[in-house]
Amino acid sequence: MCIYVLNQDSAYDFYVNKLGFAVHTDAPMGEGARWLTVTPPEQPELEITLFLVAEGGMFDNETVATMSSLIKKGTFGAAVFTCNDLMATYQELKTKGVVFKKPPTKEFYGYEALFVDDSGNWFSLSQPV
Amino acid sequence: MEQFEKVYLYKRIVQAKLFIDNNFACNIDLDNIADQACFSKFHFIRLFKTIYGKSPHNYLVWVRIDRAKKFLADGISVLDVCQRVGFDSPTSFTATFKKMAGQTPSAYRRQAAVKKGAIFANPLTAVPNCFAETHGWIK
């Protein structure tokens, strides 16, 4: 799974220090590039790449500008995470400074909240019924 | 959802959990945490266990071993890690680590160093080809 981010240092802080994900790989790739992947605390087999939107390879200037603008605007909903206790997780993440677009709410499929990462990607955080 | 009506209880339990997360290296008195959270010890342990699936004591031990893994992976010596995560003796640290991680701290540290060394020697082994091509890291 791949999440496009605007700054890998800031993404590291968000996903590792705030969400509590573990670093799977953090390797320098030369010329300032970095391969950074993390895993959710209770799903170590799911490797999530925090992929920097930056010029190089298939990303030209125009693509970088367009993607950055869309990510910042909150266009992309990147994933659905589940947790055992939504209210506890919500309270903890809020205390750590995570921004929520929607507080825990009852939906027909369960209970859900929406939070935003440091780049602008949004995620569903749910507790199955 | 009944739990949504008890936000104040959640806030207090979450604060206690965060206190453990931030002070795991200290000699934490769980009775004090219960007092600060304004719960009786019994009520506190029951609520904590309901939310996090572990007693506060077991959670504290889990946090210490989890942090120890990170320190060991960073190449810090076993003795230093033992002190940094709040264990009184290397013997109890090694025994607890082995019980929870399935190997001794020294073995874990060695294994992590080998993995890290291999990635740093050839970072492309950690990157799927499609991403490496997208980034222009391989021709």
What does this protein structure show overall?
The complex is a heterodimer of chains A (129) and B (139). In chain A, a hairpin with a 2-residue loop joins strand 6 and strand 7. Chain A is 26% helix and 42% strand. The model of chain A has no long low-confidence stretch (mean pLDDT 93). Chain A has one domain: 2,3-Dihydroxybiphenyl 1,2-Dioxygenase, domain 1 (Roll), CATH 3.10.180.10. Chain A has helices at 8-18, 61-73, 86-95; strands spanning 2-5, 22-30, 33-39, 48-52, 77-82, 99-107, 110-116, 122-128. Chain A contains three helices and eight strands; from the N terminus they run E-H-E-E-E-H-E-H-E-E-E. With 129 residues, chain A is an alpha/beta fold. Chain B is an all-alpha fold and 139 residues long. Chain B folds into two domains: 1-53; 58-139, no CATH class. Chain B is 70% helix and 0% strand. The A-B interface holds A 2, 25, 27-30, 33, 35, 37, 49, 51, 56-59, 84-85, 87-88, 91-92, 95, 104, 106, 111 and B 1, 3-4, 7, 10-11, 13-15, 17-18, 51-53, 119-120, 123-124, 126-127, 131, 133-137.
Number of domains of chain A: 1
Strand order of the largest sheet of chain A: 1-4-3-2
Order of helices and strands of chain A: EHEEEHEHEEE
State the end-to-end distance of chain A. Answer: 25 Å
Rounded to the nearest angstrom, the radius of gyration of chain B is 20 Å
How many distinct helices of chain B? 8
Please indicate the percent range of residues of chain A in DSSP E strands (runs of 2 or more).
35-45%
| Elements of chain B, N to C (H/E) | HHHHHHHH
Query: Biggest chain pair contact, residues each?
Result: A-B, 25 and 26 residues
C-alpha termini separation of chain B: 55 Å
Using the CA coordinates, give the radius of gyration of chain A. 15 Å
Number of strands of chain A: 8
> Major sheet of chain B, described briefly?
none
Number of strands of chain B: 0
Query: Helix/strand-derived class of chain A?
Result: alpha/beta
On the 0 to 100 scale, the average pLDDT of chain A is 93
Form type of chain B: flat
CATH-defined superfamily of chain A = 2,3-Dihydroxybiphenyl 1,2-Dioxygenase, domain 1
Quaternary structure of the protein: heterodimer
Percent helix among the residues of chain A? 25-40%
Helix fraction of chain B, binned, reads 55-70%
